Amino acid sequence: MRPLVLLRHGESVANADDVFAGWLDVPLTERGRAEACDAAQSLAGLRPDAVHTSVLGRAVETARLLIEGAGWELSPSAHWRLNERHYGALQGLVKNEARVRFGAEKVQRWRRSVDGRPPLADDAVLAAQRTDPRYAALPEAAGIAAESLADVAERMTPYWRDILAPELAAGRCVVLVAHGNALRALMHLCTGRSLEETARSELGTAIPLTIQANALQVRIPVP
Known about the structure:
Elements lengths: L3 E5 L4 H5 L12 H13 L7 E4 L3 H14 L6 E2 L16 H8 L1 H9 L10 H9 L7 H4 L6 H21 L4 E5 L1 H12 L3 H4 L10 E3 L12
Parallel strand pairs: 1-4, 2-3, 2-4
Antiparallel strand pairs: 1-5
């Protein structure tokens, strides 16, 4: 087997402004675009067989810059299950604003615990999801109103079991561009490390993380 390369998207305007983005589409900053180009240079010697990304614009744009900068003749494959964690009612709020509104202790638990789930998104947000072309034909996606990290791992399990694990088992090298919490959940699924352990992983923007083949558990059935 060949290694799996994980990459969090470049800095977004939500990162720069300390905002909960979740499933909101927010663009990369100039710094974020430069970070993606730097990642492309560091990975230019790699010859992946596939690039996977979420359907959120900041990951798609990072993947595009990565592919162009590294000179790979590939088209990225987008999967909604690689989306960032849905932050429910927190989406769009500056983190300090959320702490004032809901209490710092609650917000910290929602952010850092495995099973803490924020308050649900309101009906207007869900209505917009249901009509979004990326989710309109996917009731399972369109109806998500808030997620814990454990929910993200559960949501990502079919992607890992049915798409990524078979590619890796076939000896294909995959570069995966996604989001902090999605990557933490995936690290749990593909290595067998506990979700509590991977939840503590710090993932910088556009810094490649290589998981060597001997750490991947692609032949172990995922429940």
